[in-house]
Amino acid sequence: MSSLVTDNARMITDHAVQRQCFHCQSPVPSRLDLTVTIDGHRQPLCCISCEAAVQFIYDLHLESYYQYREQCSTNMVADKHTTNAEYSRLHKALTTLADGRQQLMLLIPDLRCVACVWLLEQVLGREAGVSEVNVNYATRRLRVVFDDRHSPATLAKRIEGLGYSVRADLPDASREAFTQTRRSLLLKMGIAGIGMMQVMMFAFGDYMSGSEMEAEFLALLRWASMALTTPVVLYSAWPFHRAAWFAIKNRTLTMDVPVSLAIVSAWLLSVFNTLTHGVEVYFDTACMFTFFLLIGRYAELLSRFHFQQSQDLLQHLLPDSVLRATHPEDTDSISISTTERVALETLAAGDVLLVMPGETIPADGLVVRGHSGVSEAAFTGEAIPQPKQPGARVLAGSVNHDGELLVRVKCEPGEFVIRQIARLNEQAGAWRPRWAQLADRTASWFVAAVLLIAAAAGIYWYQAGSADYLVIMMTVLVVSCPCALSLATPVAYSIATTTLRKHGVVIKHGAFLERAADTTAVVFDKTGTLTEANLKVTDIVLANADALHGIPDPQQMCMSLASALEAGSEHPIAHAFNAPHTLFVSNNKVVPGYGVSGDIDGQHYRLGLAEFALPQPDTRAPQPAGSGHWIVLSRQQQALAWFCLQDTPRAEASAIVSKLHQQGLRTAVFTGDRSMQADTIRTLFGIRDIRTGMSPADKVNAIRDLQQSARVMMVGDGINDTAAMAAADSSLAVTPRDSFVQNSADATLLSGSLRMLPAILVFSRKCQRIIRQNVTWSVVYNFTVIPLTLMGLVSPWLAALGMSLSSVLVVSNAGRLRWMEH
Amino acid sequence: MSAAADMMVSTLTGELISAFALGLFSAPHCLAMCGGIASALLMGGRSNLLTARPAPAPMTQSSELIASSVTHSPLMAAGFSLPLMSDALIYGTGKIVGYMALGFLAGTGGFLLGGLHSSALVLLQALSGLLLMVLGLYTSGWWLGVLSLERQAYRLWQPLLRRVRHLSLKHTSNKLLAGIAWGLLPCGIVFSVLSLALASGSGLHGLLIMMVFGLGTLPFVLLSGGLLQFLLPLLKLTWIRQCAGLGMIASGVWTLVNNLG
Question: Do residues A340 and A420 lie in contact, with contact meaning Cβ atoms separated by under 8 Å?
Fold first, then answer.
């Protein structure tokens, strides 16, 4: 059988002053001895229903609910901060920018609609001394940059004056504010729901009995309805009234104005008719409007919650405290006993940290001791650990799998790549297309029009003699609220940004998704994009047989000489010369752009471009024919050998290009270097349009030409082709993870691989399609329902239900962007 | 207006007022109890959230549910997310179907009883008034008599209910069955509404009354997971419980007086 034994035996319960029912957590009457034995513990129950419920839940093997509930309720106990404490926390969200201006990150928990975004941006933007204001509707974060004419407290007070509450944007603050909003919204919905059910029951009775109900019953029902509706209107619908009040106070109109007007007028009219025994009451209408509009709000909140949590996850990946070596200079002797535990935020560049196996690496830096596999899933979506050895770069947020690592911190915690990604992600998620911004700005005109139309409709139906003129008016007010329209874009963008980030694509400019969707031509910069930017010596041609006469392996000899000369250089070419050697070089010099020189055994050697290594062209040893980048090694200005350097193509590049062709896109390569000939590139990658040896200006012109007939996406490393990237419609950088910040592209592939490119293009089209569907749906919905309502064909409950379903539909449609095919 | 029609209207109003009183005064407990079940069902035994926990209690005869539960990330399971809504609707539908079946049975029973004797229906209404009073006494904590009624009813169909052990909540049909079983759980409030269905004296009316009742409970039972957290402190206040109890007793008395007087 089971360990669940119901036990009705009497037992003395002196210890239980106020026992709680195991299932429903209500108090158990003190005389009742009904218990259930779970895992050997007797738990009190309050009634047979709950006994049956426990049995039911265990029978369905859902008992983990009880444990989960306990976890939830402990999490619920969050400390609350008073407003004064909140002010003192504001300075924690303050950063000083490089140019001396201050940047404040605030959380506005009660941001209600995109019109609020516009209002905040306008009002703060007009303040003298404020140079930048961005409000992210999805995360409710406000970023403001200002100079010494303001302090955080004056700005916070200004925002509060507009009717919003302000919190310092610390990771915990957002979570806490979010939980609070969610709880209060649920409570409001619950109350509105209860009220609606009961009031509708009464209305149903009234309707069932036709007009035959006795006056005293009717009055009783009305009074009861009023008692139920009043808390719904005054408490549940409070957010609407409050928002509407502040909108009017600030002389704008937001969507809350007609909504609040409809609810309040339905309630006031009904109260009046109840008191005066008038003809009709609309308590059910007021309750329904409130309940269904709150459902719409809730759906929106959930989608925002998702984005918020994934944002928080980025922030919370890092541990709060780290093991820092007390004597960082002596790296060999560092062990756990010579470290101290310090807060992450106190780290500075140069600190040495000890990271144990299984821990999250807390800082960006270089490995100074130890070998381990490190998973960088947070950046690339790729969970397989990469080997790290001394000298390797590691990023905060990646997970150390096998070995103990000593890491030297490279930068301040605020500059960690993962934090930069979080910030960019947020900015990009907040981006709205130009037409959506226009819609926000014109929203108040739209609302004004709605108010006028509603009034006109009321007057028309009144003079037409319809008894329903008030209902029609109220329905128009509610039905025309463009809630779904205002959700259509921001929700989709915030979800799409998060999804891309999870697949290792960081968007820096919000317009990227929109423009990438229109792409018809993809231009690659060859070095580091189609190739790995990893040069190799593919050919050695000896130039001077006499000088090398008698040496057993002259090619090896030249290779050793070249490797010795290049040992002091960091140039990519230097990595190609890695032959072992025992030669000593004196006077080793790097001549940028040309090559290296040095003395070996008293003789002067040069390695580099022909004009550098051979001041007088050596007619006996001309540059060999053949593609590739040729450099020459000379001794006393006499050519010894020519080296051919070639880049390695990326393994996946040709497959990616053919996938792009399958999508019907044109491809091209615009590259500055000449090391690979057009034919070679063509055979390697299957791209037809190839131009080599281009200067940055040539690239820009070529892209402009291409833009005559196509929308161009430039794919490069984001460092060497800034101008071309700016000229293209959109740009994507394929770059090593730790240098992504410096690049100028709209988006960055953190995985350092082109594999995601076709998927990104497909995804961006999907994103635009979904936004278009959302916008179309909401516009069509609003513009068909408004005329029908004006004709009196839409009943209030249908209008309210349609509204909320429309919001839910838009949010769930955007939810499809959580998945990305690749 | 004929006297019969007059009585019909008055009866209906009486029923509605009783139903209202029931809903209003029992909502807190209903929320707490059914809300718990709803949350448990919707979490779908996502026990992978609790990996630190030892293996499930021995009563889990087959661990197939736990093994088969979809691996959701904690992110998804922590809050209600939209995909859960379809589950919620399935369970809710099942629950309403369960109620409707009960309502049909009760209504048919009332019809048969009404055929036996013309005053039977009046007596049944009086019965539902009494039931309300007993529930009120329980809610206020003054007399726990209603529990024995619940216990008897539970004994009656416990064997049937426990068949849910064999359900694995993977398939929609099983979810629907679990929902029906949920509807059949013994509950004083359901009994009271059932007594209304019984007193309606028609299978169809009984079915409709229970369906409306079920629809009414649906929206906020489904949303109650979070709501519970706010109501619990309220539920712990003795005076609130006593007020609710008094309210139920009063409406019970009212029903009695209305029907017998």
Answer: no
Number of domains in chain B: 1
Q: Which position has the higher pLDDT, A788 or A742?
A: A788
Per DSSP, A27 falls in state B
Given an 8 Å threshold on Cβ–Cβ distance, is A61 in contact with B63? yes
For A448-452, A555-559, A814-818, B144-148, which range has the lowest pLDDT when averaged over its residues? B144-148
Q: What is the pLDDT of residues A622-679, one digit of tens each?
A: 777 776 778 888 888 888 888 888 777 777 888 888 999 998 999 998 877 666 667 7
Residue of A nearest to B177 (CA): A60
Domain assignment of residue B227, yes or no: yes
Place of tokens 């040496």: A551
Model confidence pLDDT, tens digit, residues B115-130: 777 677 777 777 777 8
Q: What pTM does this model have?
A: 0.55
Contact A94, A103 (CB under 8 A): yes
Picking from A664, A187, A634, A138, the residue whose alpha carbon sits closest to that of residue A425 is A138
CB within 8 Å of chain B, chain A residues 219-238:
220-221, 224, 228
Tokens read off for A758: 């076709």
What CA–CA distance (Å, rounded) separates A395 from A363? 6
The predicted model gives A322-330 an average pLDDT of: 80
Residue B251 structural domain: 8-20+29-43+81-260
Residue A350 carries which side chain, given as an amino acid letter? G
Can you list the positions of beta strands (E) in A572-693? 586-591, 595-600, 603-608, 629-635, 638-649, 666-670, 689-691
| B60 domain residue, yes or no | no
Q: Which amino acid is at B214?
A: G
Q: Has residue B53 been placed in a domain?
A: no
Where do runs of H (alpha helix) occur along A352-433? 377-380, 417-429
Interacting residues of A337 by C-beta distance below 8 A, sequence separation 6+: none
Contacts of B155 in chain A (CB under 8 A): none
**Residue B72: per-residue pLDDT:** 32
Interface residue A48 vs chain B (CB under 8 A): yes
pLDDT in tens, B165-216: 777 777 778 888 888 888 888 777 787 778 878 877 778 888 888 887 787 7
Are A622 and A603 within 8 A, CB to CB?
no
Can you tell me the distance from the alpha carbon of A33 to that of A770, in angstroms, rounded to the nearest whole number? Answer: 57
**Those residues with Cβ within 8 angstroms of residue B59's Cβ, 6 or more apart along the chain or in another chain:** A1, A2, A3, A4, A58, A63
The two tokens of residue B28 are 């807190």
Chain B contact for A7 (CB, 8 A cutoff) = no
Tell me if A189 and B220 make a contact (CB, 8 A cut-off): yes
Residue A547 sits at φ, ψ, to 5 deg, of: -65, -25
Residue A117: beta bridge partners? none
pLDDT score recorded for residue A150 = 80
pLDDT digits (tens, 9 = 90+) for A688-698: 788 877 777 88
Tokens representing residue A569 in the block: 């250089």
Token pair recorded at residue A271: 């109260």
Report pLDDT for B76.
32
Residues contacting residue A667 through CB under 8 Å, at least 6 positions apart: A521, A522, A523, A524, A657, A660, A661, A687, A688, A689
Mean pLDDT over the full length of chain A: 78
Q: Note whether residue B163 is domain-resident.
A: yes
Type of residue numbered B195 = S
Give mean pLDDT, residues A398-419: 83
pLDDT of residue B259: 65
Determine the Cα–Cα distance for residues A786 and A782; give it in Å rounded to an integer: 6
Chain B residues near residue A317 by CB distance under 8 angstroms:
none
CA A809 to chain CA centroid, nearest Å: 22
Chain B CB contacts of A189 below 8 Å: 220, 223, 227
Q: How far is B125 from chain A (nearest CA, A)?
A: 18
Query: Could you say which of A18, A61, A205 has the minimum Cβ distance to residue B16?
Result: A205
Helix (H, G, I), strand (E, B) or coil at A373: strand
Kindly tell me if the per-residue pLDDT of B26 is higher than 70: no
Closest alpha carbon within chain B to A202: B16
